[in-house]
C-alpha cells in the first residue's frame, strides 16, 4: 500500500513481497549507497575482469571500499563503521549482485582477517592493523584451508614451533582470497599447545603467496596459496585470546553470515536478467514470457528469492539481537546458496544460448556460485551440522 493514498503499489518483480518495507531508512540508505557505488565503479567493468581472470587495481578498489566504510563495517572501534549485521548483510547482497569476487574481497577482509584480529587479537595487534585495514590501506587474508585439508581443519599440517621466544611457521595454505596482494595474513597452525592463530606480515622472509590461475569461477577475485618456509615471528605475533578450532570456526561463521545475503544478490541479478529477457525475446510470434512453462520458472524463482530474503533478514535481526547460533547460520548458508545457484541455472535456460554469454550476467553468477556453494563449508558439512542439531549425534566425526 502507498502510505499516502492507501492504494496498492505496482508490483516489483524483484520484490513481490514488498520486503523493502521491512527495512529501516538507514538500511535502505546503505542499500542505495552500495548499489550506486557498484553502478559507478564495478558494474561497467566486471564482465571484462571476469573474462580476463583479473581484478585490476584491487588495492585501489579496496581503498574506495574503505572510504565508503564497507571494510569491517560491522565491527566497533579502530576506524570501523560499527554498523548493524543487517546493514552488513545488505551491503553483501548489493556487492554480490555485481559479482561474488567483489563481495569476497570485502568478506575476507572484514569477516575473516579483521574479525579474527578484532575478536582475538592483542591491543597492539588491533591498533597496528585494524585502522589501516578499515581504510583499505592494508589488505588482509585468512589462512586456514590446506591442499589436503578443507572440511577437516583440525587435521591441518601447518606447524608453528617455538624457537626461544620466537615462533617459526612452516606449511602451506590453499585457495586463499586476497593472498597475492595481502599485507597481513591471519594463519592458523598446529602447535604443542593446540591450534593457534598468528598475525603474519607478508613481507617477512619465507612467506610467499603465488596466485592461482586457470579458475573458471571467481575469476574477478585474487586467489593464491600461502607458502610458509621457516617464517620467523616474535612471541607477540600469536592471537592471545583463543586456542583450538573455536577461533577459526567463529570467523567462518561471520563470513558465512555474509554469504547468506550475498548469494541473494547473485540470484537477484540473474533473475532480473531472465525477467527482462522473457519480455523481449520472441518465439512463435510472442514473447517467451507469455508461455506457461516460462512463467512457471519465473514464479518458482521469485518464490525462492523472496523466501531466501526473508530468511536472511530474520537471521540478521537475530544476529543484531545476539541470539544467532552457528547451526542457524548453516541453515541460511545451505538454503540460500543452493537456491541461488538453482535460480541462476534456471535463468540460464530462459536465456537459451545467450545465457552462456558474458553480455548477460547469468553464466558469470552461476559459475561464481559453484565456488560459493562449497567454500566456507560444503553442502555436506552444513547438512551434517543441521543433522547434529536435530539428532544430537555428530555424523562427521
How would you describe this structure to a colleague?
The longest helix is centred in the middle third of the chain and has 35 residues, at 246-280. The chain has helices spanning 25-41, 46-52, 58-67, 85-98, 100-120, 123-134, 246-280, 292-321, 326-351, 362-372, 379-391, and strands spanning 140-143, 159-163, 166-177, 184-191, 194-201, 207-208, 223-233, 282-283, 286-287. By secondary structure, the protein is α+β, with helices and mostly antiparallel strands. Its cofactor is FAD. This is Acyl-CoA dehydrogenase family protein.
How far apart are the termini?
A: 52 Å
CATH architecture of the largest domain: Up-down Bundle
The fourth-level CATH homologous superfamily of the largest domain is Butyryl-CoA Dehydrogenase, subunit A, domain 3
Quantity of strands, as a count: 9
User: Shape from CA axes?
Assistant: globular
What is the spatial order of strands in the main beta sheet? Answer: 2-3-7-6
- CATH C-level class of the largest domain is Mainly Alpha
How many structurally independent domains? 3
Structural class: alpha+beta
**CATH topology type of the largest domain:** Butyryl-CoA Dehydrogenase, subunit A, domain 3
Order of helices and strands: HHHHHHEEEEEEEHEEHHHH
Number of helices: 11
β content, as a range? Answer: 5-15%
C-alpha Rg (nearest Å): 22 Å
Largest sheet: 4 strands, antiparallel
> Helical content, roughly?
40-55%
Q: Unreliable segments (pLDDT under 50, ≥5 consecutive)?
A: none
Arithmetic mean pLDDT: 95
Amino acid at each position: 500500500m502507498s502510505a499516502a493514498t492507501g492504494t496498492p503499489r505496482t508490483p516489483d518483480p524483484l520484490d513481490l513481497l514488498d520486503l523493502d518495507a521491512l527495512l529501516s531508512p538507514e538500511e535502505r540508505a546503505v542499500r542505495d549507497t552500495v548499489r550506486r557505488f557498484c553502478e559507478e565503479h564495478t558494474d561497467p567493468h566486471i564482465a571484462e575482469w571476469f573474462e580476463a581472470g583479473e581484478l585490476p587495481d584491487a588495492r585501489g578498489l579496496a581503498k574506495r571500499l574503505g572510504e565508503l566504510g564497507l571494510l569491517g563495517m560491522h565491527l566497533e572501534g579502530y576506524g570501523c563503521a560499527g554498523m548493524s549485521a543487517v546493514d552488513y548483510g545488505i551491503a553483501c547482497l548489493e556487492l554480490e549482485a555485481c559479482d561474488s569476487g567483489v563481495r569476497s574481497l570485502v568478506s575476507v577482509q572484514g569477516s575473516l582477517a579483521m574479525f579474527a584480529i578484532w575478536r582475538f587479537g592483542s591491543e597492539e595487534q588491533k591498533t597496528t592493523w585494524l585502522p589501516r585495514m578499515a581504510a583499505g590501506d592494508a589488505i588482509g587474508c585468512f589462512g586456514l584451508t590446506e591442499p589436503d585439508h578443507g572440511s577437516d581443519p583440525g587435521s591441518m599440517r601447518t606447524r608453528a614451533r617455538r624457537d626461544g621466544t620466537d615462533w617459526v611457521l612452516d606449511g602451506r595454505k590453499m585457495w586463499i582470497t586476497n593472498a597475492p596482494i595481502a599485507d597481513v595474513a591471519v594463519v592458523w597452525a598446529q602447535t604443542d599447545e593446540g591450534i593457534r592463530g598468528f598475525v603474519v606480515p607478508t613481507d617477512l622472509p619465507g612467506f610467499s603467496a603465488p596466485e592461482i590461475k586457470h579458475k573458471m569461477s571467481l575469476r574477478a577475485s585474487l586467489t593464491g596459496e600461502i607458502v610458509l618456509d621457516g617464517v620467523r615471528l616474535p612471541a607477540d605475533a600469536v592471537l592471545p585470546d583463543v586456542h583450538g578450532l573455536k577461533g577459526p570456526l567463529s570467523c567462518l561463521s561471520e563470513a558465512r553470515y555474509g554469504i547468506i545475503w550475498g548469494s541473494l544478490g547473485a540470484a537477484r541479478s540473474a533473475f532480473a536478467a531472465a525477467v527482462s529477457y522473457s519480455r523481449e525475446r520472441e518465439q512463435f510470434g510472442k514473447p517467451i514470457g507469455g508461455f506457461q512453462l516460462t512463467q512457471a520458472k519465473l514464479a518458482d524463482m521469485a518464490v525462492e528469492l523472496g523466501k531466501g530474503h526473508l530468511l536472511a533478514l530474520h537471521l540478521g535481526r537475530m544476529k543484531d539481537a545476539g541470539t544467532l547460533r552457528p547451526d542457524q547460520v548453516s541453515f541460511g548458508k545451505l538454503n540460500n546458496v543452493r537456491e541461488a545457484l538453482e535460480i541462476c541455472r534456471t535463468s540460464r535456460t530462459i536465456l537459451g544460448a545467450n545465457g552462456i554469454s558474458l553480455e548477460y550476467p547469468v553464466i558469470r553468477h552461476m559459475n561464481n556460485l559453484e565456488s560459493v556453494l562449497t567454500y566456507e563449508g560444503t553442502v555436506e558439512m552444513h547438512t551434517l551440522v543441521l543433522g547434529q542439531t536435530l539428532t544430537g549425534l555428530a555424523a562427521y566425526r
